[in-house]
Write a structure and sequence with these properties.
Helix content: 25-40%
Radius of gyration: 24 Å
Largest sheet: 8 strands, mixed
Strand content: 15-25%
Structural class: alpha/beta
Distance between the termini: 25 Å
Length: 529
């Protein structure tokens, strides 16, 4: 067997949110750590909104005057995530939540106790603490007192870089070595234990080649999310560089390998294989090209167990503006679908099971006016752009509900009945059939009426983000990867979306990043043996 080209105590494969957390934690424990990334590091975390779901009394919540506690947070999450992890792990996640925010703050991640005064899917640059899930929606209010737990890293626009950047800088300051332009290809197993990885690296290529690789990788990452053809073209060029200038290397992990390679939403064939009936091709793959499932499959090749690979989260956000929560969402039959104040992933799941994956929001003239007035002050640029397109393109308007329904191709009689039932419940102070809270619902009576197309097929006018939630099964106490044959794979750990975790049943904003930090710290701690 060929000799090792380099070595470290802990080798981290994939350097996004979970990867930098695992690397930093292992380094804090005294390990020599080497992290590799095929691209430039950052992963989907750097592209994200930078939201961390945290509660139980974080310093940010306390400074904002929010009195949260572990049991209240746990009661909500038990209903939201179900059996994604054991009851003991979910409680531990909640109990460790305040300390997690403390740890991130100590490593430079900027949080701010500015409380968003309205319900939204993502706050404007004026606010950095908000309801990021369905805490304030019908049904959940009865289970636990609603508390704001969406901790947004402080930064303009989307804040993912404001979260990843300080953690990466702290890791570098503490001596974590990072090798970019390096793609893991195989796990090395000796005497039943993972002892390292094989990879292809361009680290020794001429500087001009590495600069070109970096430029192409940046285009593939963010613009590529919205333009699959552009990403495919960039990936072809990146692969060509790798083939021409890459060299094979073997990297020894004296203590453990941590897989933090993300999910597999960028691998259409893998998604289709595990979720053949899900309309994934109509969504917007949220992540980088590195979210190709390679870490998962490398582990499976040596006998690792996996789970929930058929679980996807599809987001259909309707706010800001917050007035939109007062609309009603209907399918092609004219039937209402859900409490519209729920988190966007719940609405996305409802559309995924609706006939033809078609859905519309019905608004009346008063709601339309309020929404337009709120749009500017409540939104950031990308939300404004999407909502403007929603309000202008693919709309069906009519003086009456029936006229709007006919133009949209919806059964007018059924939609009329749906609207009448909605209005009647409000008028007679009856509970909403889908549980929408009284302070959010509003009657729809004033024409003209407009049906806004929020179907899966409205991809170009109203993009619908989508990501995978399943991955490798891990020991929930250590993060060690479980083996198909029983027990764990010695020397192998996983975290983030490469592993089954807190959000593998149900997603709300910030839960994936929170799980990346939670599971990354767990894996980084136990990979040091």
């Amino acid at each position: 067997m060929r000799a090792w080209d380099s070595a470290a105590d802990v080798v981290v494969v994939g350097y996004g949110g979970a990867g930098v957390t695992a690397a930093l934690t292992a380094r804090e424990a005294g390990a020599d750590v080497l992290a590799i990334d095929r691209y430039l590091g950052g992963g989907a975390t750097a592209l994200s909104g930078g939201i961390v779901y945290a509660g139980g009394g974080t310093w940010v919540q306390r400074d904002a005057g929010i009195d949260d506690d572990v049991d209240t947070m746990l009661a909500y999450l038990e209903a939201e995530v179900g059996d994604a992890v054991s009851a003991a792990t979910l409680r531990r996640f909640c109990e460790q939540s305040p300390a997690m925010i403390d740890w991130m703050t100590e490593h430079g991640v900027p949080f701010q106790a500015s409380l968003c005064p309205y319900k939204t899917s993502y706050p404007s640059d004026d606010y950095y603490l908000y309801y990021s899930g369905s805490e304030n929606s019908g049904g959940y209010r009865d289970l636990a007192k609603p508390r704001q737990r969406g901790h947004r890293a402080h930064g303009p626009g989307v804040s993912g870089k404001a979260l990843f950047g300080p953690l990466a800088a702290s890791a570098a300051d503490r001596g974590v070595r990072v090798r970019t332009g390096t793609r893991a290809t195989r796990l090395v197993v000796e005497d039943g234990r993972v002892t390292g990885i094989e990879a292809i690296t361009i680290a020794d290529a001429p500087a001009s080649v590495r600069r070109r690789f970096a430029a192409l990788a940046r285009i593939s990452a963010k613009p590529g999310v919205y333009h699959p053809g552009l990403r495919a073209a960039m990936e072809a060029l990146l692969t060509r560089i790798e083939r021409k200038h890459g060299r094979p290397v073997r990297i020894q992990a004296k203590s453990g390998v941590v897989l933090t390679t993300g999910g597999f939403i960028a691998n259409g064939a893998m998604v289709a294989r595990h979720a053949p009936d899900y309309p994934w091709s109509q969504g917007l793959p949220l992540g980088t090209a590195g979210d190709d499932g390679s870490g998962i499959t490398m582990a499976q090749d040596i006998g690792a167990a996996s789970g929930k690979l058929d679980a996807l989260s599809t987001w259909r956000f309707i706010a800001p503006p917050s007035a939109m929560f007062g609309a009603i969402a209907v399918n092609s039959l004219g039937q209402r679908m859900i409490d519209e104040s729920r988190y966007g992933a719940a609405l996305g799941a409802a559309i995924a099971t609706s006939p033809g994956n078609r859905a519309w929001l019905l608004v009346d003239a008063e709601l339309d006016r309020d929404a337009r007035e709120q749009l500017g002050p409540q939104s950031v640029w990308f939300q404004r752009m999407q909502t403007e397109r929603l309000l202008r393109i693919g709309t069906s308007r009519g003086r009456t509900v029936e006229e709007a329904a006919t133009r949209a191709g919806i059964d007018p009689a059924t939609l009329r009945d749906t609207v009448d039932a909605h209005n009647r419940a409000i008028e007679h102070n009856l509970p909403d059939p889908f549980g929408k809270p009284d302070d959010i619902r509003r009657p729809l009576r004033t024409g003209p009426f407009t049906l806004l197309d929020i179907s899966f097929t409205a991809r170009l006018t109203y993009p619908m983000p989508m990501l995978t939630l399943g991955g490798l099964l891990v020991d929930e106490d250590t993060g060690a990867v479980r083996a198909e044959a029983g027990g764990v794979v010695p020397g192998l750990f996983a975290a983030g979306r490469a592993a089954v975790g807190i959000c593998s049943n149900s997603y709300v904003s910030g839960l994936s990043l929170a799980d990346c930090v939670f599971s990354g710290r767990r894996a980084g701690t136990h990979a040091v043996a």
